[in-house]
Amino acid sequence: MIKKITYLAQACSWLAVLTTVGMILLFLGFLGVRGFDTINPTLFFGNTPPWGAIIGRLPVWHGIWPACVGTVALVLLSSLLAIPLGLASGIYLAHYASGAWKRWFSLAVEVLAGIPSIVMGLFGFALILSLRKTVAPQANTCLLLSAGCLALLVLPYLILMTQTALEALPDELRQAGLSLGFTPWQNMVHVLLPVAGRGILSGVILAVGRAAEDTAVILLTGVVANSGLPSGILDKYEALPFHIFFLAAEARSDAELAQGFGAALILLILTAALFLGAYYLKSTFTKTWDQKNLSI
Amino acid sequence: MGPKKPVDLEPTVLVKSLHVGFAGREVLHNLNAKFNRGWLAVVLGRSGSGKTTFLRALNRLNECFPRSATRGSLKLKLQGEWRDIYRNAMPLPELRRRVGMVFQTPHLLPGSIADNLALPVKLVLGVPRRNIASRVEWALEEAHLWDEVKDRLNAPAHTLSGGQQQRLCLARLLALEPEILLLDEPTASLDFRAALKVEELLLSLKERYTIIAVSHSLSQARRLADEALIFRDGSVVQRLSREDLQAPDTLQALLEEIF
Amino acid sequence: MLIQGQASSPRTAETVLQAHWRHLDRRQSGIKGLLLGATILSCGSVLAILGFLSYFALPIFSEGHLAEILSWEWRPFQGKFGILPMAVGSLSLAVTAMGVAYPLGLGICGFAHGLGPRCLKGPLMGLINFMTSIPTVIYGFVSVIFLVPLVRGAFPESTGYSWLTAALTLSLMILPTIVLLVHAQLQQVDARVRLASAALGFSPAQTLLWVMRPLAFRGLWAAAVLGFSRALGDTIIALMVAGNAPQVPNSLLDSIRTLTSHIALVVATDSTSQAYQSIFASGLILFGVSIAVNLTLRRLQSRAALPATGRHD
Q1: What is the mean pLDDT of residues C108-136?
Q2: Which is the CATH superfamily of the domain at B10-258?
Q3: Which of A88, A149, A190, B45 could form a disulfide linkage to B49, CB 3.0–4.6 angstroms apart?
Q4: Which of C124, C137, C299 to mutate to test the interface with A (most CBs of A within 10 A)?
Q5: Which residues fall within 8 angstroms of residue C67, CB to CB, at 6 or more apart?
């Protein structure tokens, strides 16, 4: 009987693994095969001469270059907003907060992490609605608003990764600095942060990846299909994930569909590269303190 | 081995009815003690008798642990002035610089051998950059480590042997000009030979500092101590002079008390 | 910096020292204040989000639209703004996606912890980890191009944009969440029992099925709850492939609309104020569900955690 159950379980597990691996390979293979040929300068710049497009002199009509620039701008702006706030909050929660306050703050961070991204977008939308009703009747959804909402979306990841990386450090490291007469902040800046740096950096990279791929937030806060390069942070913009979303529904020709595959592959390569970078940093971080090998 | 009893002892640490607890559980009860400069006191006792907590009370490191509570009076004579460190407080960093501590296992800072000394000297004492190298050398000489490491100051500190690491920690303390040294079983993680080197070092330092060492070894206490304090359940139950420690009949009683 | 050397008299030396110490203390509390400010800002954003959603959903109550919003018909041009079909859509999609993903996830975890060959564990978990980095919109895109025609081909009466297509795609997206959570729990349990059960002569497969499985039940629950909430919170896959018809589905081949895609659709097609009220109501429902999920997870975790026992001697 026990043998039979074991065999059955083994068969089921093989089935599950083969199904999943098969689906994923099919999925990636499909994307790779259809997308590979489309990756060339035309994908990015259409008929526009690349150099003129890159320096922003010539508008690009049939390429994904504006979407790429939009995504980069979006990611940079939201990182600028989220990283300082996330690191500071993570440090506070790891080493300064205590007792009931720490529990309440942690609860808030967890709730923030659980909020669906569309609700984050809806929050941005509501913000604009109320601005219009009150102080700024001209207010409209824009790059800055999207970046702000994306920053909120990735903020809890940054906080949790910073807090976890700092709390994972051995106690003796903290005591060493304090017992020598470092102030808590000196100990943080010169001892703990350098050692936890890789772990924190991997969290930052994962957060950047999430900001780059999210579609639901920007859908409600100012992304459009055809705006060209963003001309300012208070303007509409294009972004890669939205471009893919748009082409899936609205592609009118094989050429546009091919562009969709190209854009999807570019976005996948981007997020996969970020993911691998974070994975590498995280594994070396764990090794660093696991083996008591605290050199930086 | 040690010098004869100095003529006039200068008291530097006065502990009166000290209580320390964590999360409501009291670890030290009504503890009284006195320590002197130029005098090496060894604290003995079973594990769990509050030895480490007592040392940490002297540089207020217990406050790094959750829900610690300290009562009583703990006076230190620092720079010629008596201060109750829990009341008429100086800032914690300043207190901890003057009351240096070495842990059971070497607590290294990240980075090279030189970094381990230079960083505290720079941050805590504010020594200008040009003077740091000479102070690093001085401290390593003090800790009898200079000859062993002078050619590889920029090697990662964890490449040193355990005994060298522990002496590096001592050098790091001495560089900060402390007045009181707290040693928490400084040789517990070392082999016999390395332990002897550290003991030698301690004996050479004791003239100039107030040294309080927790030890796990009776024979070590007999080699080092000018005075031994026996801890049980969070208070001092017995004090032994150097002569008492050498006497064979106290030895038997001690063995039963501690082990 | 520290004041060293001889001062003119002990009194002034002491005063100078005291001033220096006060300066140090102020600096430390200044830094602490800044960090606290950042934390309050981060955590306060949760309240801000809740506040804005509630403020915009308020007219539902004050103008007495609650019964209209909580009804079964969405025909904005006829003044019907019911979101219950979308709530049912969200729920059915999340449940079916879990129905596919959860058994697959458990199978994969079992495979990695004793049922499959050891040498395949590394590559398998690597692949699962990699899956977390695939953008949702790409799942949607490939599904539109590949799976939708497939479903249309197999069931000619359907357009292919259906509950079934969305559930299959979504299950792929939530799979890594489930696997990684259960895997983490099994690893913890494994560390505790491996030697003991190996010493009793259990095979790895038997250890997993009869020793570890009962011990890992919290991880199993947590994975179910978190996977479900991720499925419920997804917008893009539902929006791209579920068809978005505001109706209660009769079969897996019917088109459905979720609360999340409802929000996106209404914002995209500029509508009346009552339509807006319906999306803020949807937002509040989603927010409420995410809080409920969070509290459940916390309860599961707090039971898992042992009482902290610090050792001080």
Answers
A1: 91
A2: P-loop containing nucleotide triphosphate hydrolases (3.40.50.300)
A3: B45
A4: C137
A5: none
